[in-house]
Design goal:
Layout lengths: L7 E6 L2 E6 L18 E6 H13 L2 E5 L1 E3 L2 H13 L8 E3 L6 E5 L7 E5 L20 E5 L6 H4 L3 H11 L3 E5 L8 H4 L2 H8 L5 E2 L3 H8 L1 H8 L11 H13 L4 E5 L5 E5 L2 H4 L4 H4 L2 H4 L3 E4 L12 H14 L4 H15 L12 H9 L13 E2 L5 E3 L6
Length: 389
């Protein structure tokens, strides 16, 4: 691997300002009461910031494309991005009217996070906000169509965006977020949208909750509401079935982010990888027909915000460096672990050189394997029944 190579990634889609009060422990909201909190952390959020800045911190050359408002929150977003790297805000689209998107994030220690979200001018983002043809890039990563109405009100919008990238020969990547189930986005037929878009998507790695809600709402309700099989302990076979489903709909690389349990990865046959963008098609023989599980690294968790996006960034960065799947899934788990050591979304992510040295220094990771899976050549990586190695 050439650790000094700076691959080019366009990260597009949802961008917002994150407002994150520091919480010291478990709490319940009761009308008329006050809950104590610590300092408020303010940073950028959304897929464009979380995955884009994580890729930048790892060492990739990143272009960020999203909409912000000409308002105080928009100025905070712009200044934060520029403080992270000169020129990172230059491709943002400033809408003359409307407000910048924001998210209030409640992330108690050792608990999953909760969100209050306002879409603002992000709601106007569309496939036409990306130039055609795309500027030269190894990867186009697009995130969070669930909070970008153009992409669920028009079933074909997501496919049009990725077809534009496909014509440029760019490897394509899609990430999602959990929709508000009471909103229009929560009532959309996401399976139909994905069936149309995924043939032009090379890499798709949703979380377990997102995958279940989009691909099997009834299965989600059954697992989420069960006293005996909560999402944290969803059967491995359920996760494998979701990965197989994603590949059947047309993706080349399918992943399922499983939080503390780690990351599941499954890839298509070489013929599908050969139809991918230049980056992935060039590695097709090493990436074809693999099924892997990457376990988590041991860290002190300070906040779970952005961990899935950082892990996705680690996976994509591994691909930029030409890693094989076992190496790339390990890079993903390492980046995600670094992220949760900070309260905000990206400051915990380290450069690839720092991350690599940490792994080589004996960084411990979980040794719990899915039942019946074989150990891979890298400690903490397991090979599934469908793996061809």
């Amino acid at each position: 691997m050439d650790a000094g190579r700076r691959g080019r990634v366009i990260v597009a889609g949802h961008l917002c300002l994150d407002l994150i009060p520091e919480l010291s422990g478990r709490f319940d909201f009761v009308p008329g009461t006050m809950v104590g909190a610590g300092p408020m952390r303010i940073s950028t959020g959304g897929s464009v910031s979380n995955t884009g800045l994580s890729l930048h911190r790892l060492g990739a050359e990143v272009t960020l494309v999203a909409r912000i408002g000409r308002d105080p929150l928009g100025e905070l977003v712009r200044r934060h991005l520029e403080s992270s790297g000169e020129g990172l805000s230059k491709s943002l689209i400033v809408s003359p009217a409307g407000e910048t998107s924001y998210t209030l994030i409640l992330s108690p220690p050792d608990e999953d996070r909760m969100f209050l979200h306002y879409s603002g001018v992000s709601a106007d983002f569309s496939a036409d906000d990306l130039p055609d043809p795309l500027p030269p890039a190894d990867i186009l990563h697009f995130g969070y169509p669930q909070v970008l109405p153009r992409f669920y009100e028009d079933r074909g919008e997501l496919g049009r965006l990725f077809e534009r990238a496909r014509r440029s020969g760019t490897t394509t990547s899609l990430d999602t977020c959990f929709p508000d189930l009471s909103s229009e986005a929560g009532r959309v037929d996401w399976r139909a949208i994905l069936e149309e878009a995924l043939p032009a998507v090379d890499v798709f790695v949703p979380s377990l909750e997102e995958a279940l809600v989009m691909l099997g709402p009834e299965r989600y309700r059954k697992i989420a509401l069960s006293d005996t099989a909560p999402l944290a302990a969803a059967p491995t076979e359920e996760i494998r079935a979701l990965g197989k489903d994603i590949l059947a709909m047309g993706a080349a690389v399918a992943g399922i982010k499983c939080g503390r349990r780690g990351l599941y990865l499954r890839t298509a046959p070489e013929a599908r990888l050969a139809r991918s963008g230049r980056l992935l098609s060039g590695m097709g023989s090493r990436w074809a027909d693999r099924e892997l599980w990457g376990s988590t690294f041991e860290v002190e968790v300070r906040g779970a915000v952005g961990a899935g996006d950082a892990a996705y960034a680690g996976l994509l960065f591994g691909m930029l460096l030409g890693m094989d799947p076992e190496e790339a899934i390990t890079a993903a788990c390492a980046a995600g672990a670094c992220c949760v050591e900070a309260h905000d979304t990206t400051s915990g992510v380290r450069s690839w050189e720092e991350t690599r040295r940490r792994m080589e220094g004996g960084w411990q990771r979980s040794t719990e394997a899915p039942e019946g899976w074989a150990p891979g050549r890298i400690e903490g990586v397991w090979l599934g029944p469908a793996d061809s190695s």
